[in-house]
Amino acid sequence: MFAGLWARGAALECRSAALSKFPRQGSFRLLHQATTTSRVAQASSRAWLKPSSLWSSSRAFTLRAAAPRRPFDPRFFSANAAHAEAATAELPVLSPPAVGGWLLASAGLVFAVIVVGGITRLTESGLSITEWRPITGVLPPLSQTEWEEEFEKYKATPEFKLLNHSITLEEFKGIFFWEWGHRVLGRIIGISFVVPLAYFALRKRLTATLPKHLTAMALLIGAQGALGWYMVKSGLEDSLLETPGAVPRVSQYRLAAHLGTAFVLYAGMFGTGLAAIMDWRYATKGFWSGMKENGAKWKEVLENPHVKRFSRSVKGLTALVFLTALSGAFVAGLDAGLLYNEFPLMGGRLAPPADELFDPAYAKSPDRSDIWWRNIFENPTTVQFDHRCLAITTYIATGLMFAATYNPALRAVLPPLTKRMAKSAFAMANIQVLLGISTLLYLVPIPLAAMHQAGSVALLTTMIHLLVSLRRPGAAARAWRQALQNGKKAL
User: Fold this and answer.
1) Which of 139, 212, 235, 276 is most deeply packed, by most CB within 10 A?
2) What are the φ and ψ backbone dihedral angles of 123, each rounded to 5 degrees?
3) Quick check: 16 pLDDT over 80?
4) 272-286: per-residue pLDDT in tens?
5) What is the pTM (predicted TM-score) of this model?
6) Do 418 and 469 touch, CB atoms closer than 8 A?
7) 351-364 burial string, b = 16+ CB within 10 Å, else e?
């Protein structure tokens, strides 16, 4: 009897000692651990008093592991469940990885529509559909009669009368499907963006700053469709038939606006998606820009003078990449790639003659005050020369940016992800230059020209990724990270 009382007393002492080591605000997990410890002590004391023959393995108990909990379980922050729920309710909404994945997938669709749009332009298919029907236009002609009706509409266009008057119905179907596929892909982008946006917004899964930004993107998608039709209309005007030497094609200004809007959409979706995923990683794991052990030092890194200067140069280079890609739209719109198919010279010179670069024939004002800007945007020779200059400047600037990452003072503080993306950007710049030169030398073959346009998007992608790698974690991610660290300290 006395031995049993002594064993129980020893067990209570063990339990009290175990509980006294933890703060009172600890979570339920601590109580579970303390209880388990006391049971071990109690069982050990009983085993010391009982003969070994009476203690078998079948009677031994097992330690039950705690059930897995969510990364931000309210019980991490307070032993009082009600108080914990109130504490977590005060934290801002942090977008889950699903939001980032959806935005990256949307960016991938925009990448695809840019490439398909380039092929549509190269195959001269953009004027094959003469109407804009956002709803009924989803279905192509399904019968022979419908195909013939669509073909008759195309026969009334300046492009058919001036260029394709000998085209057959089967050949018309080939160019029709490129334009139809481009339009349908645009509709798919709209649906696949707006529907998940509504879902995430209603479920309150979007960080505070995201709803207005994503709503602006949704509106821009709709505007992009209208802008595309506005561009096509410029190539269907009957006035082209009355202009001597006119070529039935869309306005290079509207083409540049259409492509530029697509680039802005792509950059917004891709950059926002990356930022959402990186914020989640920082909040849950403390990772930042490839820094796993020192992710908490992001503020120290970003405030470094060398990093600040490098970040400003990256922003300027990203703008230069965008401008170079936009100038390519003028090259495509004016078929300027079919001139001076040599590199690096143009007609045996580094630059064409001045009177060719600034031809007075392009001036429309009586005093010729518009000769400068009209030649820059409407003269194919000047447009190609400008694109060459911008491309060479972009390539040199990308090389200098990459070389700067090997400066010991800068390299010592740059995050690993930033160094990798700087290398990727320079590698992509090399590929893009080779594609551009090859496209020019081989008289703009469709496969090379399409890859060159895709390369411009890929180069912009690396620059956006580089910019995001130098972005500080969002306010919501910082708040959740701080809450998680406070919860761990309480443990």
Assistant:
1) 276
2) -85, 5
3) no
4) 999 999 999 999 999
5) 0.82
6) yes
7) ebeeeebbbeebbe
Q: Is the pLDDT of residue 48 over 60?
A: no
Per residue in 312-347, pLDDT tens? Answer: 999 999 999 999 999 999 999 999 999 999 999 999
The two structure tokens encoding residue 352:
């064409």
Among 467, 46, 21, CA closest to 268: 467
Measure the CA–CA gap between 321 and 395, rounded to whole angstroms: 9
Instruction: With CA atoms as reference, report the closest residue to 329 among 96, 126, 44.
Output: 126
Whole-angstrom distance, CA of residue 456 vs CA of residue 374: 25
**Tokens standing for residue 7:** 């064993």
Which range (80-84, 118-122, 359-363) has the least confidence?
A: 80-84
Q: What is the pLDDT of residue 88?
A: 55
Contacts of 384 (CB under 8 A, 6+ apart): 331, 336, 337, 339, 340, 346
d(CA 197, CA 331): 36
Rg of the Cα atoms in the chain: 33
Q: Which residue stretches of 334-415 are H helix?
A: 354-357, 371-378, 380-404, 408-411
Contact 250, 231 (CB under 8 A): yes
pLDDT of residue 294: 72
Contact 85, 74 (CB under 8 A): yes
Taking the C-alpha atoms of residue 422 and residue 403, their distance in angstroms, rounded to an integer, is 9
User: In angstroms, what CA-CA distances link 396 with 43, 326, 425, 490?
Assistant: 75, 18, 12, 53
The set of residues, in sequence order, having a beta carbon less than 8 Å from that of 136 and lying 6+ positions away, is: none
With CA atoms as reference, report the closest residue to 317 among 246, 234, 405, 413: 405
**Distance from chain centroid for Cα 60:** 57
Q: Is the pLDDT of residue 385 over 90?
A: yes
- Count how many residues are written for the chain: 491
Angle in degrees, 0-180, between the axes of helices 169-202 and 97-122, rounded to the nearest 10? 160
The two structure tokens encoding residue 2: 């006395």
Residue type, 222: G
Query: Are residues 103 and 272 in contact, defined by beta-carbon separation less than 8 angstroms?
Result: yes
Across all residues in the chain, what is the average pLDDT?
85
The answer to whether 343 and 435 have CB atoms below 8 angstroms apart is: no
User: Quick one: pLDDT at residue 89?
Assistant: 56
The burial of 128, by beta-carbon neighbours within 10 Å (0-12 exposed, 13-18 middle, 19 or more buried), is given as buried
Q: What is the pLDDT of residue 59?
A: 36
Give the whole-angstrom CA distance, residue 236 versus residue 232. Answer: 7
